[in-house]
Queue: 3 jobs
Job 1
Amino acid sequence: MNQTTQFGVATEALLKEMATVRLHGAQHTIGRNFGSRTRAKKKSRKKKSLEQVISISPRFIKDDPVDCFGQTWRQTLTAWDSLVRQTRIPPDTPVADLDITSAVDALNGSIAGKERTSLPPGSGYVQFSRFLDALEGRVKTDRQAGLIPSESGRVTASIAFDIYLRAQSVGPEALQTRSKMSEHRRAGRRWQELVGPSVFLLAIYTDVAEKFVKDHLRVDKETFKAMASVALDSIPTNLLKACAYLSTIAEDRLRSGLPCDDAWMDQIENYMRQHSLM
């Protein structure tokens, strides 16, 4: 084979190789582009689905929230004040010496709906979540101080759950398992997302909101946060201010040890009317 023939054969082989490379490259590009389009479609569908879910958020709020608040805030404040006083953990008592049976029974009763005529749905769950947070904080402090023996593999939350379960009285309202406690705590945290600056906003939420709170499989945590944000944005500003004011003054009253009586609530009402909060 002469040089010209060898060159022709080599050139032909090179052209075939280049064609193969171009074909593979094209296939790779097509595959990559197809994957990108598929991901884009999925992302678009997810965004649309999220928008549809979030569009439900305004239905979380009752039709006339200001009027609803005006009619119920006194009885809500009285019942909430009573629940919080019953479920406060003494500041200087070690966990091992705490008697929290009455507090635990009050929380279980509230969640079960014993105070439904006075407290809005969700109140018991919110205070349950807060109570567990405080109990865990006390357990952590006592462990660090050596007042609770360290056990390998036992986390603070687990110890707090056990203390709560042991403190319950026997009855239909008692929580039977840690998983039930976790479920209630998750609901409490979702309610806290919805009420934002004030627990007194619970009075203006609908059954739709309650369904999304209790069924955590409806939407994930991040989606629920977005829904809660939209719901809060739809609440009239004067109502947000009124509830925030009520929370602040109620907490001050609790710390003072003074009772939640009619004379005090009359002063609150006068203040809110003077400042156009009602």
Note: The chain has one domain: 55-274.
Job 2
Amino acid sequence: MRLSPNGLLWSSAALSILSHSANAQNSSQIVLEALESIVDCASCLAAFTPLQAVAQTGNDAFSDALAFVCDAAQLDDPDVCSGPIIAHDLRSISSTGQTAERLLPLPPPSVSVAPPSPPATRKTPIQVVHISDVHIDRNYYNEIGQPVTEPAQPFGNLNCDSPVQLADSMLEAVNSFNPAFVIFTGDVQTGAKLSCSVSDTMLMQCEVNTDLKAFNAEMLSKVTAPIFPSIGNHDSNPVNSFPRNTTDPALNVQWVFDTQSAGWEQWIGSAASQQVDHISGSYAVAVTDMNLVILSVNTQYWYRQNLWLYDSDTFQPDPNGLFAFMVEQLQAAEDAGQLVWIIGHIPLGKQDTVEDPSNYFDQILQRYKDTIAGMFFGHSHKDQFEIAYSDYDNQIAANAVGVGLICPALTPTSGNPAFKVYDVDPDTFGIMDIHVIFANITDPTFQTNRAYLVCLLRRSRNYGTLVGLPADSELTPAFWHNLTEVFTTNDTAFQMFNTFISRGGDVTPCDATDNCQNTTICDMRAFRSPNNCVCIFYQSSMLRILNGFHPFRTPTRAHSNLGGEVRVLLPEDRNLQNARASE
């Protein structure tokens, strides 16, 4: 081995190639053969050796060789192919480094892939339940005494997170549907435990660990169907805290992954539970007797309020390799002719998702859109959806390629406790209909009989006629886009949606005032966070991030114990007040 002037090690093979590159024709042949050898990621990385050898001969020789190859292969104009910058890059990076890997595109389809066509006669739909954001407060009490003089109701209060009794009643209601399976998109912990002192950290970890185990046990005891969970931003301590694997190992949250790996194994099996342990809380597993894979992703590594994302100047486009894991699993499913549901906690289009990973996720969606049959999230506590487009500058039904369905929360702090039931085609795994099941928590009879209302909303019945949806059609991305078009002109329909957001429990007026209606519709059309229209203030946002504040939770008496004060001063800058946090 020999050290090159820029510090890279060159093998004897590379030097041998270099010695035979005395003229442009030889260099052109080497470049051509290197490019022709590329058939997959491994061969692409292997091609770096001969290409780097030619680049070492100088910019002129490499540019001439590349231009010759482009012209001969009719790839592009020779002037466009001329590459002194490419030569510089090849001399500056290693074929085994992360930068080289980032040059590689997503693998092309190995087989012809098309979205599954609905059968001539559809089978009876299966039902799948979606639950999220349970936020169980195991210190909830409803006895008169200090510090309150009026007791909270036994099965929940709009000013408090979920008591255990409310969570149990929800799980019993879920089981009554006899679903084929259940998806849970995270957040077990109460939002009251927002932060703690260093001395409390180990105690809080122990408590969080105990609560995660307790809810796993409660789901197992009350729901007979398989459950496929994902991790939420509140399922750690401190809240939102998920250090990257490049951070000091002593600061990791492996204890969260260990706990959920063991707790989820009963539903996802040993292989997937090992993935939870070793791939930062993510896993992929095939659903028994179905042509469907559940891909559960820990979205907290893309969360703006995960402050561990800012502990280094080194750009890390794929923290802990989660995007690489997604591509690996999607490619395997595509090769096997399987369909995939992606589940995770934080929707990719919200303003608190970092823009870069939101864009990377969208690129993966564009590539595997015919394999991804559904995407499901929580976090916002609202009944919402986000549409992905192949061209965000031309948002029309024909360009709608995916939709993220967001589940409302169990916790009453954001409205009536609710969950969703999906009618699912067992062949295409497309959504045929959605039922939102909720509890009217302010109704005194609920506190005694715990009866969940059969249905607040059926998408096909409430919205289908507005867009001319045939009775046997799936709720495709185009359907959701057409619905947003209705919302722009039909205020009655939009106000119905606005009521459904909180399940009728905490309705916030939204109309043309302060541009609320347009902003909300824009948010529906934003599966990528850079495309949403929600404006937040830099200063108040930073204060809330530092204090562990959840952007979608309303501060109440029950959530006032922040356990510390913000010890930072931010400059007042009124010019920032109308700026978007993503800019």
Note: DSSP finds 20 helices and 14 strands in the chain.
Job 3
Amino acid sequence: MKIEYYDGIYTDIFGSVPIRIINNFKFLSFKIRNISFIATDFDDLTIHNTSTLTQDQAQQFTWAKDALIKYKLQINLPLTIIEIENQQIFQFRSNLQIEMHQTVYSAHLDFELAGQCYSASHSDFEGLFDQIQRQFQGKYRFKNCYGCLYADYSVYGQAQMGSMGCFKKQKSNYLAVKNKDDYMQLDAVDFCNQEIYCCEDYTIRDQQVGYRGTID
């Protein structure tokens, strides 16, 4: 199982604390003020075991039902980028900032690559990566599920992160998709892959295919 670790800072009205996020690419797990949390994305932080939460511990956070609200996260998120012309690989840590208000979520991503600064703000990872992909102006691609030729989203929408489907087992059929109707005829897949995951079968997304298309 692939696992990554991200260092970051959690901030709310009670102060700021360092955190380390463990990502097994199905769940994010971490501790805040010695309390264990688990989540599938960054806008739905819930207690790993609510039965162990004391009243004093609960009062250290702001809640909406069982999930945290009114917090900020700053995370050193690793990214891998491919330069299309010569296939050079760049690996580095980007700055991901997440803010959860009462009901509204926002995210900001920025990094420097080859002396050029890139930044984006949106409510989900697809929007963040779409904005930066346009800024690349055809020079680079993300080396992850978002940047893979065989990854796509559900026609019924998606979560903030982790809603990509993998079509590598039906490559020829997927590459023939030109519209939503074609897409709906493909064999069903689970839409549960994180945009930032990358497997050994990654193929650079360099064709206008699928439901989501490709940003040139």
Note: Helices lie at 55-58, 125-136, 171-175, 180-184.
